[in-house]
Amino acid sequence: MANATKKPALYLAEYDTPNALARAAMKVRDAGYKSWDCHTPYPMHGMDEAMGLPPTRIGFISFAFGMIGVATAVFMMQYTNAFSFDLLNIGAGYPLVVGGKPPGAFPSMVPIMFELGVLLCGFATLFGLLGIIKLPRHNHPIFESNRFEAATDDKFFISIEADDGKFDLDRTKALLESTNPTHLELIEEEVL
Amino acid sequence: MSSYDAPIKELGETYLLPEGTTANDVTETIAGVTENPAPRGWWLLFLLSLSVLGVMTAALAYLFYQGVGAWGNNAPVYWAWDITNFVWWIGIGHAGTLISAILFLFRQKWRTSINRFAEAMTVFAVLCAGLFPAIHTGRPWFDYYLFPIPNQMDMWPNFKSPLMWDVFAVSTYLTISVIFWYVGLIPDFATLRDRSKNLVRKRTYGFFALGWRGAHRHWQVYERAYLIFAGISTPLVLSVHSVVSFDFATSVVPGWHTTIFPPYFVAGAVFSGFALVMTLMLICRTVFKLQNIVTIKHLDLMNKFMLGTGLLVGYAYAMEFFIAWYSANPYEQWVFLHNRLGFGILDENGNWGPLWWAYYAMVFCNVVVPQIFWFKRARTSVPIMFIASILINIGMWFERFVIIATSTYRDFLPSSWGMFHPTGIDILTYLGTFGLFFTLFLLFVRWIPMIAIAEVKGTLPGAHPDLHALEAHDETPDAAAAPVPAE
Asked: What is the model's pLDDT at position B346?
């Protein structure tokens, strides 16, 4: 589609050093942008503060599902090993007395409670992570840049997206230029 | 001008990687392994592993055809090589989780050069381990009975059995290890994607990279998720080998029925796992020329770990003897003096306890050999640590064999005593799992970054901004803050 119309998607500024990136990030943060991001090849400590990010809440998801896992384990083991009525219409339980312990002996159920808690916590953390960061994602206009391949190697980038309320072709460009990037480009995406 | 991650010079700390290593060097070295043609050695090893995997398949086919009678297990030794191999393999896996999770919680940055490698080893070792309980049931096509699946017989698993705990512990461990491994791989798959020259590679790595674009808003959640994985994996890894030890400790067999088993098994697991990481790492860093990423300093630290866990294991061996004496239980004392050490009354042929040599082999490999790591020269000598790590793995196999076979072959009633002899199928099945392990492992080192690229970059000098200095002097010249002097 050679004649496809394009619209600005984001500004991409490139930096060579972590300190240059952090200083630029503080400027963008102080300018009040919301829909922007830093791109680094590795998790860079101190950037939460430089970008003014609130702490993440993924821990609540993990904890909640871990507890659900523990509860599931208790229910499963008590249902199948301690009671003999068919509550869920999947077959009645099968109370067993083994080793002189009562059918619903709690201490012997601790290992599986723990394991199922960990299992659900792990799945919740994985899918919570992917849900919060909205990945997998098929494409992103940022990949239009040829220089962006270095973002997973040794360069540092700041992107300010066009859907930000404060985004303005000239003023955003001026702001990013004032941070002394080694390269600055406007990425456009095709309008469908 | 240093960030808060800088080493403390006053304590004699230095940077992990050689001075002047840049982030780009790290990418090139590690990603290069997957991009360059495979060395001839890789092909030789791969074909060899594939052949051994074929041997395992044949041994399993015969086993399924013939039944577990194809093995040497028989009264009174009902568990023998199958469970020995299970415990051995799963123990090996534990070092991977220790390195990736526990050392992460303790902020041991040197782990970054070996954690990916060790995690992969965990996943493959647990696969090999899981095979043995599955096939030793005799009719593996009924293994689904182990899971609480509603059925017309209203029959459910007995959750009070440690064997059921094992099912849940090992399957959870495998699942969480795979997830942890994959989450760590996402940024590195993105690196490989961005370096890809052809479309197939780009699409394949792009698929697994999930569209990762290194955004800090992602890194923030990612790092927290990683911390949570480390936090749940740490008790998980301790629980898995504790549960494995419960298989023995909850029984009444003398030599098994001891409370020291959970910590003893966990220490042994970490010990053997570190040894196998060492063996494999020494080969890979030579074959793929990674000496600048996995330095002698990393190997030195791993050897210290082996020395430490080796001492723990040695303590456990000694404590077993003390408790056998202190318990005043004649059967327990018999097992340790006769079955293990070989002392005591002679059998009807005038022989010592015939499996005594397994115990001495174990003590030599696990307690005597690691003592060499008290010496810095040994800790930094590649040939010495290579031989020591192999001996430790042999010793740890003997430890499990000693616990399992020499506890049961002569226990309570002399008329019920027996002997254990492995059959050819026993041996071929065990050796065959090496084929499974190494086939998977060689595919891993060839196609997946075997060192955590992103994490290693985070340990380079100046990798993190110095916010306080930046805020104090807003116009810090960049030159002073440059991460690494340019070559």
From this structure: 66
Q: How far apart are CA B88 and CA B27, in angstroms?
A: 35
How many Å apart are CA B360 and CA B319, to the nearest integer? 16
Nearest to B24 among A77, A122, A154 (CB): A154
DSSP A149: G
A106 by DSSP, 3-state: which?
coil
Q: Do A26 and B236 touch (CB under 8 A)?
A: no
- What pLDDT score was predicted for residue B319? 94
Q: What does the pLDDT look like over B411-438, one tens digit per residue? A: 888 888 888 899 999 999 999 999 999 9
**Paired tokens of A6:** 């394009």
Q: Count the alpha carbons within 13 Å of B127 in the hemisphere toward its beta carbon.
A: 18
Tell me how far apart the alpha carbons of residues B291 and B433 are, in angstroms, rounded to a whole number.
29
Q: What is the mean pLDDT of residues B312-331?
A: 93
In the sheet with A156-161, reading across from the earlier edge strand, the strands are: A36-39, A156-161, A6-15, A183-190
Please give, rounded to a whole number of angstroms, the shortest distance from the CA of A65 to a CA of chain B: 13
On chain A, the residues whose CB falls within 8 A of the CB of B454 are: 41-43
Tally Cβ neighbours within 10 Å of residue B432. 22
Q: Do A91 and B158 touch (CB under 8 A)?
A: no
Contact A135, B218 (CB under 8 A): yes
Q: Which CATH number fits domain B23-459: 1.20.1630.10, 3.40.640.10, 3.40.50.20, 3.30.470.20?
A: 1.20.1630.10
The answer to whether the Cβ–Cβ distance between A140 and B218 falls below 8 Å is no
Residue numbers in A near B165 (CB within 8 A): 111-112, 115
Q: Which residues does B49 contact at the CB level (< 8 Å), separation at least 6?
A: B434, B435, B438, B439, B441, B442
Which chain A residues are closer than 8 Å to B215 by Cβ? 37-39, 133, 159
pLDDT tens digits for A16-52?
999 999 999 999 999 999 999 999 999 998 899 899 9
CATH number of A6-54+136-190: 3.30.70
| Model ipTM value | 0.93
In angstroms, rounded to a whole number, what is the distance separating the alpha carbons of residues B356 and B337?
Answer: 10
Write the pLDDT tens digit of every residue in A114-153: 999 999 999 999 999 999 999 898 889 999 898 999 999 9
CATH 3.30.70 domain locations along chain A: 6-54+136-190
Q: Give pLDDT tens digits for B27-58.
A: 988 888 888 888 888 899 999 999 999 999 99
Q: How far apart are CA A158 and CA A124, in angstroms?
A: 30
Q: In Å, how far is A127's CA from the nearest CA of chain B?
A: 10
In chain B, where the domains are located: 23-459
Q: Buried b / exposed e across A20-44, counting CB within 10 Å, b at 16+?
A: bbbbbbbbbbeeebeebbbbbbbbb
Residue A137: list chain B partners with CB under 8 A: 210-211
* Residue A69, C-beta contacts closer than 8 angstroms, at least 6 positions apart: A116, A117, A118, A119, A120, A121
pTM for the predicted model, two decimal places: 0.90
